[in-house]
Design goal:
Strand order of the largest sheet: 1-2-3-4-5-6-7-8
Number of helices: 9
Oligomer: single chain
Order of helices and strands: HEHEHEHEHEHEHEHEH
CATH topology: TIM Barrel
Number of domains: 1
CATH superfamily: Aldolase class I
Strand content: 15-25%
Mean pLDDT: 96
Low-confidence stretches: none
Radius of gyration: 16 Å
Structural class: alpha/beta
Length: about 200
């Protein structure tokens, strides 16, 4: 496992899903050190990424969802140029390009049925990402231990809406849980262990 990623999740096991520019300020002040930037227009990324990086945030940009950002080699190169920590994609090619540029990589996987799971496992084996964003989180208990191992380390995402969802994700082997609920962006491992409200 990448040491930088492990350290970033050491205290707060929640990856902030920052959807849209309006959520950036909330992430900037949250304890979570890891965020996925999504649905942020390409023209705003060069303003947002450096500010969050100076705040010691580990930033993965979802190249598939940011308007105007190409999902090709040039798009990944652009993310490196503006100082993004990493790239997120459902596609193998951007992950491979990110790895070639020494960016951190997160392969986003949607598991909808058994055949889709098998295709996803093969894609992850090909891309060799630093992390897998595994969606939806409620499917994880239905996956075999072997499938979870191939996907590891993974971040459980989708339908993680409360601390119980975060705790359940971690119990299923996730390194962290991703959520767009900013109330979870400062939830610590100590609070989860102690059941603090």
């Amino acid at each position: 496992m990448n040491e930088k990623i492990a350290a970033a999740f050491a205290e707060v096991p929640v990856c902030a899903s920052v959807v849209g520019p309006a959520r950036v300020r909330e992430f900037a002040t949250a304890a979570s050190r890891v965020g996925i930037l999504a649905s942020i227009p390409v023209g705003q990324l060069p303003k947002i990424v450096p500010v969050l990086t100076r705040l010691d945030k580990l930033l993965f940009v979802n190249i598939d969802s940011c308007p105007g950002l190409a999902t090709d080699r040039g798009g990944v190169d652009f993310l490196q140029e503006i100082g993004a920590s990493g790239v997120v994609s459902t596609r193998v090619a951007p992950i491979e390009r990110g790895r070639a540029l020494s960016l951190l990589t997160m392969h986003k996987v949607f598991v909808t049925d058994r055949s889709n799971l098998n295709r996803s496992l093969e894609a992850v084996k090909r891309s060799g990402p630093d992390l897998v964003e595994l969606m939806p989180a409620p499917i994880i208990p239905w996956m075999s231990a072997e499938s979870r191992e191939v996907m590891s380390p993974f971040v459980a995402a989708g339908f993680v809406t409360d601390r119980a969802g975060v705790a359940h994700s971690l119990a299923m082997g996730a390194l962290a849980a991703a959520s767009s609920d900013s109330a979870l962006w400062s939830l610590t491992r100590a609070e989860l262990r102690g059941g603090a409200e």
